[in-house]
Each structure stands twice: as C-alpha cells, then as structure tokens.
Amino acid sequence: MLVTMRRLFRLWFFYGGLDIKWMLRDIGSFAIYAFSDVVNVVAAITAMLLISERFDGVGPWSQTQITFLLGYAVMVNGALDTVFGYNIAFISRRIGRGQLDHILVQPQPMWLTLVTEGFSPCAGLPIFLPGLGLLGWATVQLGIQVTPVWLTFLLFNFLGSCLIVFAVSYVVGSLAFWAPRAAEEINSSSWRLISELRTFPLEGVAPLLLGGLLTAVPIGFVAWYPSRTLLGLEPVAAAAFVTPLVSLVFGAIGLWVFRRGLAHYAHTGSQRYLSYGHRR
Fold first, then answer.
1. pTM value?
2. Phi and psi dihedrals of 61, rounded to 5?
3. What long-range pairs does 38-41 form, CB within 8 A, spacing at least 24?
4. Rounded distance, CA 102 to CA 260, Å?
5. Chain centre to alpha carbon of residue 262
6. CA-based nearest residue to 199, from 36, 37, 41
C-alpha cells in the first residue's frame, strides 16, 4: 500500500508538471484559458445568484445558503476537471477514438493510470479555487461552527458527490464499447445536463421528478442534498451519511458497467483511431 501511494503521488507530480509546462508554453494562451475558465464559472452561477438576490433567497434557502450551494457545486466540477482531465472523465472519447489501448499497454494497473494520467491543475484549479472561496465566504457569513466533525462530513460528502458524477459519466461513457463512433461524444451531453442543473435547489419539485433526480439522474446528490445536510436543513443527523453511501452504490454500478464493456472490448477491439485528445 505504501509503495502504491508513493507511486500515485509521483505520477500526479509528473503529470501535473506536464500540464503546467504545456499551459505555460505560451503565456498568451495560458491567460486565455484561465480567463475563459473564470468566465465559465461566473456564467454558471450568475443566474442563481441574481435570482437569490432579487427574491432574497430561493424557497427555504437564504441568499448566503445559495452561495454555499453554488460554491460546493463549482468545487465538485473543478475537482473532477483537475484530476480527470484529458478525456479521462469523458471516457467515451478515449474508447470511441481507439485510444484505450494507450492505457492497456502501460505496465501498471488500469485504475492507477485513470486516476493519474488526467491530472491537470492548470485546467481544474481556476474552477475549483473560486468555488472554494464561495463556500468559505458563505460558511463564515452563516456562522457555521467549523469543527473537525463538520469538516469530516464536508470531506466525505464532497468526495461522494465527485464519485457520483464520475460514476454516472462512466456508465454513460461505457456505451462507446458497443457503439464507438455513435457514442464518442455522448459524455459531453450527460456532463452538460448535470452541470446545468446542479446549481438549482430542488425544493418544490414534484415527488416523482425529485425521485428521478436522486436515482436515475442523480443531480440532487451533486450539490443540493449534501449542502442541505451540511447546512443543517435536514432534520435527521444521519442524513450526512446518505451521499457517501449512495456514492458507493453508483460507484459499484459504474465499475460493473465499465468492466462489462471492457470484456466486450477484449473480443472486438477498436476499428478506428483518432490521435487527438490524449497525452502524447
């Protein structure tokens, strides 16, 4: 275990260095990338911020609580972009373009490659850090007692939210094992759906629709439900364990679907190859 962890951090350091060198090869391009990421974050949260400002909150959520929700949602997106860039999160592109073989031929476990090769701090941190700032500001304004227990709940709920989004992406992306050309870009649509709806409070949603947003398309667990538990809006204290437990279920489903697709790929392989979109 110690050797594996050392190799994990060594690979993160290596791939992070490659990302930094690639981004800084041209200061002008780096400035454009960073600025566009900030604009993207602002565009994603502005609508909800303006609504909460106009009506002094949304439903049972105060304006500051909405800011906490938005910060949490942006952090989830930024963390996934940081760790799983270069189409690791959009695995349908790797599969559909015939690039999975790059991973299969490496002399190390596939999981280790998947959690390290996409490490791209220059691409993800400009999104993650503003989210962290929003969440920190809201936490102070709300007077939340930041105890070790609360921080532990925050960490496990945050990791659970990331795992749920990642697992759903792999369930959808694994369709490319069976239809590589048709499903090459399918991750983009599913990711866009989650990204566009993750910042909205779901109070007042019809029970049937709310159930679908917590099961079939678990948008509610990206930010809404974990934020409710961290802000104390859920009456039951055990609610803080729901998101981490649900993430294990979705993680198991994502792993099962991906392994089934991988078994199919072992028999069929890829009939096409496109070189762009991966580290060389």
1. 0.92
2. -90, 130
3. 38/126, 38/130, 40/127, 41/74, 41/126, 41/127, 41/130, 41/131
4. 19
5. 22
6. 41
Query: How many C-beta atoms lie closer than 10 Å to residue 199's C-beta?
Result: 22
For the stretch 219-266, pLDDT in tens is 999 999 999 999 998 888 789 999 999 999 999 999 999 999 999 999
How far, in Å, CA of 29 to CA of 26, rounded? 5
Contact assessment for residue 191 and residue 219, using Cβ atoms and an 8 Å cutoff: no
Q: Which two tokens stand for residue 239?
A: 């609610």
Q: Kindly list the domain boundaries of the chain, sorted by start residue.
A: 10-268
Largest CA distance in the chain: 58
Spell out the residues 6+ positions from residue 278 whose beta carbon is closer than 8 angstroms to its own: 86, 87, 94, 99, 102
33-85 pLDDT per residue, tens? 778 877 877 777 888 888 888 888 888 899 999 999 999 999 999 999 999 99
